[in-house]
Design goal:
Layout: H1 2-12, E1 25-30, H2 31-44, E2 50-55, H3 62-70, E3 74-77, H4 80-88, E4 96-98, H5 105-114, E5 119-122, E6 138-144, E7 166-167, H6 171-180, E8 183-187, H7 197-220, E9 229-231, H8 247-258, E10 265-268, H9 272-275, E11 279-291, E12 294-299, H10 307-311, E13 318-322, E14 333-339, E15 348-356, E16 363-367, E17 387-392, E18 397-402
Parallel strand pairs: 1-17, 2-3, 2-10, 3-4, 4-5, 5-6, 6-7, 6-8, 8-9, 9-10, 12-14
Antiparallel strand pairs: 1-11, 11-12, 11-16, 13-16, 14-15, 17-18
């Protein structure tokens, strides 16, 4: 987090012409960090013929999507609205993956008519009934590998009752569907925040083996088309990149050495791994109260911005206390509950955090807010979305990406 902290501390000193009185909180996007993570992802999978479709839902800001597209990466859309956002960002449909589990008939027809060569992943065999004759797009089929990957229950999508994918146990039906329909891609995504990479590799190996079976069956039946591509989804936890081999590098190496994935074109759909350490945020400390042996600090970002941290559990965001002049607070550390602004008893960014003694008018810098934060902004209490600022630390430049936005 050292590089992001250095960037954050520099940035907050440059706000005199950007921050207005109403800007009690600000959100920042680091272009240099995003470029670093995208480049690392590409390098990790350099042994594969890979399209990296970054998950829009993790950070759907239009400026971020445009940046990703400008760097030659693809995008993954989980709704028709995200498809349209990707098109607005300049994506070529051939580099766009559409994964919604509730695609309507009209949405599928729109993809056929408007977005040639978009990669459309079906969520079940039933969805085949909605595909037009001679579709003008790539058809993929999501497979539920029915495996345990160590994901938290909330993000685990490959158990028996998952709403995602055709269970791999329906092998015969899947094989027959691929015989009778122009399916050329299989999709697998076992869960997010994977706790066991080996199990995820095993799940992908099972789907690759299924693709091998299908291709053999197509050959036996003298059908020329093949499963050409495996979409392996995303799911890796965020990590700080260093000189040591990354988890992403290890994951790609395991996939290369332990599966036949290299025989196929590959699609990835990483989101949180790419974005988490590419964002930071700043809030004014509005009140500080003493509650027994704890200090209770009230800030202007809470469950509206960091919804998962408040509702599930803290994800490892680092808090840096700053004084009113944006200098690092050198006071002694105190046990602190960081309370958000919402009228909701669970609105805490973290309890029992060790933070220097704070006072009204100080600031709290939050490092590691790039994923599933702005994207999940909650309308609870209808607070405005803060101004979002792009930071190019190498060029020492700031630019407003979007102004403070109210909901009325």
């Amino acid at each position: 987090m050292k590089a992001l902290k250095e960037e954050g501390l520099w940035t907050v000193k440059q706000l005199s012409e950007i921050q207005k009185t109403e800007d009690t909180a600000l959100i920042f996007q680091s272009w240099n960090q995003l470029e670093k993570y995208l480049s690392h992802l590409k390098k990790a999978f350099s042994s594969f013929d890979a399209l990296h479709a970054i998950a829009i839902k993790t950070n759907p800001h239009p400026a971020v999507l445009r940046y990703i597209v400008s760097k030659g990466f693809g995008l993954e859309a989980a709704s028709m609205e995200e498809v349209e956002m990707a098109i607005s960002a300049g994506i070529d449909p051939i580099n766009l993956v559409f994964d919604s589990p509730v695609k309507t008939k009209s949405e599928i027809i729109a993809c056929h008519n408007l977005y040639p060569e978009i990669k459309l992943n079906l969520n079940s065999l039933d969805e085949l009934n909605r595909i037009p004759e001679n579709p003008n797009f790539t058809i993929g089929l999501r497979i539920n590998p029915m495996t345990e990957t160590g994901s938290p229950e909330l993000y685990h999508v490959s158990h028996d009752e998952s709403k995602f994918g055709e269970p791999i146990s329906n092998r015969e039906a899947i094989r027959n569907a691929c015989l009778n329909h122009p399916i050329s891609q299989l999709h697998v995504h076992s869960g997010s925040a994977l706790g066991n990479i080996q199990n995820a590799v095993n799940a992908i190996a099972d789907v690759v083996a299924l693709a091998d079976e299908i291709n053999e069956l197509l050959s036996i039946n003298k059908i020329t088309r093949r499963i050409q591509r495996i979409d392996i989804g995303g799911g890796l936890k965020p990590e700080l990149l260093s000189e040591e081999p990354s988890q992403m590098m290890k994951y790609a190496d395991m996939l290369y050495n332990q599966t036949n994935l290299r025989k196929y074109q590959v699609v990835t759909e990483f989101g949180q791994w790419c974005h988490f350490y590419c964002g930071f945020a700043l809030s004014e400390v509005e009140y500080v109260l003493q509650r027994g042996k704890k200090q209770l600090a009230y800030v202007h970002l809470g469950a509206d911005f960091l919804l998962r941290d408040a509702y599930v559990k803290p994800r490892g965001i680092e808090f840096v206390a700053l004084n009113k002049n944006f200098e690092v607070n050198e006071e002694s550390f105190e046990t602190t509950d960081i309370a958000g602004p919402l009228c909701f008893a669970g609105d805490y960014l973290q309890k029992d955090a060790q933070i220097p003694k704070l006072k009204e008018g100080d600031h709290l810098l939050m490092l590691g807010t790039g994923s599933n934060s702005y994207a999940l902004w909650s309308r609870h209490c209808s607070r405005a979305i803060p101004k979002i600022i792009g930071v190019d630390f190498e060029k020492q430049q700031l630019a407003i990406l979007s102004e403070r936005t109210k909901f009325h």
